[in-house]
Each structure stands twice: as C-alpha cells, then as structure tokens.
Amino acid sequence: MINLLIGGGVGSGKSSTLHTIIAAAAIDKDRPPLVLIDGKGGVELGLWEAVAHGGVRRTPAEAVTALTWVKGQMDSRYDSMRALGVRKLGRMHDIPPLLVGIDELATFTMGRDRKRRDTFIGLLHDVASRGRAAAIRIVATTQKPGTDVVPSHVRDLFDTRWAFRVSTRDASDTILGAGMSAAGYSAAKLPAYPGAGLLLAGGEPPVRTLSHYLGTKDLERLAAYAAALRNRQIGGS
Ligand SMILES: Nc1ncnc2c1ncn2[C@@H]1O[C@H](COP(=O)(O)OP(=O)(O)OP(=O)(O)O)[C@@H](O)[C@H]1O
Questions:
Q1: I need a surface site. Which of 6, 192, 196, 223 has the fewest CB within 10 A?
Q2: Measured in whole angstroms, how far is the alpha carbon of residue 136 from the centre of its chain?
Q3: Any binding-site annotation on 179?
Q4: Where is the FtsK domain (predicted)?
C-alpha cells in the first residue's frame, strides 16, 4: 500500500491522473470503498458521485466527516488484524483496499477555519501513517506542494511522489525532495505537455512517466459501469 502525492502546475495533468487511479479502483473486482474529496467543489470528481462512499465530499466540513469515517474503518480494520493475528492486511484477508482520493489538498489544509483545518490535517496524518497496514491508501493532488499546504510531517508520510510539470526547480524539489533538481531530476525540465511526470517511489531514483488519459465521456461511461457493478453486488441499494 502506498500513499501518493501528485504535485504539479496548473493544467499539468494531476487531476487526469487521479481520475485514472479512481477509475481502476471503481471497477476493481473487490469493489474497494472509495472516499472522494474534491477541493474544487465537486467540479472535478463529481462524475464519481454514485460510487463514492457517502457521495463526493465537497466542503471542508464534509472532508472532515469523510476522514472521520475512514479513521473509524481503520480502527475496525485494526481490530480485525488483532483477531487474525496479522500486522498487515492483504487481499487474502477478504477486506478490500480502501482508496481515499483528494483533489486539491490545499482547499482543506489552507482553509480559513483554523480549527477545522487542524482537525483535517490531524486525521490525514493519522490515516496516512496507520492506514497503510490496514490496506488504506491516500492519493492526493496539489498545485502547491510547499510546507504551507502540506506540512512536512504530513508530506513525509506520502512515500510516493509524482511530480508533473512545474515552473521552478524549487517547486520541483518541494515535491520530489531537496537536492533532486541538482541531481538531474527536475519537473521544471519536463516537456510542456500534460501527463508528463517524474515518479519517485520505492527509494529508487525518479523515473520519467507519461500518464494515460481518459476523456470526460470515457470517465462518465466508466463511472456508470462501476455504479452498475456495485449496485449488482450490493443488491441494488
Ligand atoms: N496524460 C494526458 N495526455 C494528454 N492530455 C492530457 C493528459 N492529462 C491531461 N491532459 C489534458 O490537459 C488538461 C488539464 O489536465 P488536468 O485537469 O489533469 O490538469 P491539472 O494539473 O489537474 O490542472 P489544475 O491544476 O488546473 O487542476 C486536460 O483537460 C486534458 O485536456
């Protein structure tokens, strides 16, 4: 299980990449629960409404409600792990992986209501740090990956970072880590087309990537298909 932070400039392909990850999870045979939080007020992730647990969450208050639910799931998964005598959940334990997808983290980490913002960050920290063993992963996008948006203690919990094109070496380093530009890995040097990225994972040097792209019509078709699959499985509820 990984926690993935996708950073990049405007129009660099972050949300499109998040959609492809959600699409795969939405039609996954184990029907993993999807918790979707949209910092763009539903404009981006709204098409997944029918398959998102409790619908797509759009406001900071809803984001806190959603993460509180995820934390509850995580706690009960830990109970199951204790009962099973395992330190980690895998597919063999019949508990599907849970995906938390967050588009534009800054909406929630920089919101005006300080108390709510701190609650959100606290929950995010807890889920990112303890969720991995319980087959819960977070995939989040951010235009500004600096410490004001994602506090470093939270950012460090994202073991996998995906940098799309940014305008400066510093911005690239805030996603991939200090010294990466100097070592030859700068997202400021990526070609200027959306979907081109540098992926840092597993302690290896970053690798160049080019994301596949699904257009809105195809995503809508996939969302409808996923909703039908899931309704069949849970008896049309
Ligand atoms: N992998 C890709 N291949 C080809 N075109 C792409 C790809 N990813 C994105 N695009 C195009 O670029 C546009 C912007 O992509 P996207 O919305 O994913 O960017 P973003 O980084 O999330 O932008 P923002 O910061 O404004 O949210 C898409 O509408 C699409 O036209």
A1: 192
A2: 11
A3: no
A4: 1-173
Contact 39 CB / ligand 1 (< 6 Å): no
Gap between the terminal Cα atoms of the chain: 29
The 10s digit of each residue's pLDDT in 42-72 is 999 999 999 999 999 999 999 999 999 999 9
1 CA distance to ligand 1 centroid (A)? 26
For ligand 1, is residue 3 a contact (CB within 6 Å)?
Answer: no
DSSP state of 57: B
CA 215 to the chain's CA centroid: 19
Q: Distance (Å, rounded) from C-alpha 95 to C-alpha 90?
A: 8
Q: Would you say 201 and 6 are in contact if contact means Cβ atoms under 8 Å apart?
A: no
- 26 CA from centroid of ligand 1 (Å): 20
184 in a labelled binding site = no
**What does DSSP say about strands 98-103 and 34-38: parallel, antiparallel, or unpaired?**
parallel
**Does the beta carbon of 211 lie inside 6 Å of ligand 1?**
yes
CA dist., res. 77 & res. 131, Å (int): 9
Residue located via tokens 């334990």: 93
